[in-house]
Automatic annotation (TrEMBL):
GO CC annotations on file: cytosol
The keyword Cell membrane is annotated on this UniProt entry: no
SMART domains linked: EXOIII (SM00479)
GO molecular-function terms, A-Z: 3'-5' exonuclease activity; nucleic acid binding
Keywords: Exonuclease, Hydrolase, Nuclease
Protein species of origin: Pseudoalteromonas citrea
Name the record gives this protein: DNA polymerase III subunit epsilon
Chain's gene name: dnaQ
UniProt xrefs under CDD domains: DEDDh
Pfam family, one: RNase_T
Length: 209
């Protein structure tokens, strides 16, 4: 990368972080996986929806199954999906990635545990020669972890699950391990986190990231 390109990227990043949270289009994505390691495990399904002007747009909801999964491992136990469903209702991994690229490119990507989900997306996109490039990435798990640490509260691993984080904002409990319902749950959590921060004033994107 040339110095000029690096400086341009830094300037774009600074401008983005100094913009207001409610100015951007967001896509909230959740993946169901066969495990936790992108090099060894696979994407089983992906669910997403978008958000604009602090409003979740349910009409944009999307859900895809990956029919190319080679081994479900323990997935049927956790996700309730089996090979018959994947074969009958699924699309190829390349089609699933194309669907993700369509909604992610040019938007701010939101995940609960972005390191995990974005890691799988990046690995699969590279293997399938796809380009998926969000404008920025927000992690609701990271937001909540920071908030609790600032409050001086001791943290256990289970304190940062999507369900546990939602409970602290009195959000309803949804069924887990469905990519689309978890994407919606993450979107609602992000809005709750934002409103707990802004105290009636507009927050910049940097305050959330």
């Amino acid at each position: 990368m040339t110095l000029g390109k690096w400086l341009h990227n830094q300037w774009v990043s600074l401008q983005l972080r100094q913009s207001y949270f409610d100015e951007h289009d967001y896509v909230i994505v959740d993946l169901e996986l066969t495990g936790l390691e992108p090099k060894k495990h696979e994407i089983v399904s992906a669910g997403w929806l978008t958000m604009q002007s602090l409003k979740i747009d349910l009409s944009t909801a999307g859900y895809m199954l990956n029919r190319n999964v080679t081994s479900l491992l323990q997935s049927p136990i956790y996700h309730g999906l089996n090979n018959t469903q994947l074969t009958a209702q699924g699309v190829s991994l390349s089609e699933l990635l194309d669907g993700l690229a369509k909604v992610i490119n040019g938007r701010v990507l939101v995940c609960h545990n972005a390191q995990l989900d974005w890691g799988f997306i990046q690995h699969a996109a590279k293997a399938q020669q796809r380009v998926i490039q969000p404008k920025a990435i927000i992690d609701t798990l990271k937001i909540e972890k920071h908030r609790l640490l600032v409050q001086g509260k001791p943290l256990k691993q289970q304190d940062l699950t999507l369900t546990a984080c939602r409970a602290r904002y009195a959000l309803p409990k949804y069924s887990e391990h469905n990519a689309l319902s978890d994407a919606l749950a993450t979107a609602e959590l992000l809005l709750a986190q934002y409103h707990s921060m802004n105290r009636g004033s507009r927050e910049k994107l940097s305050a959330i990231m």
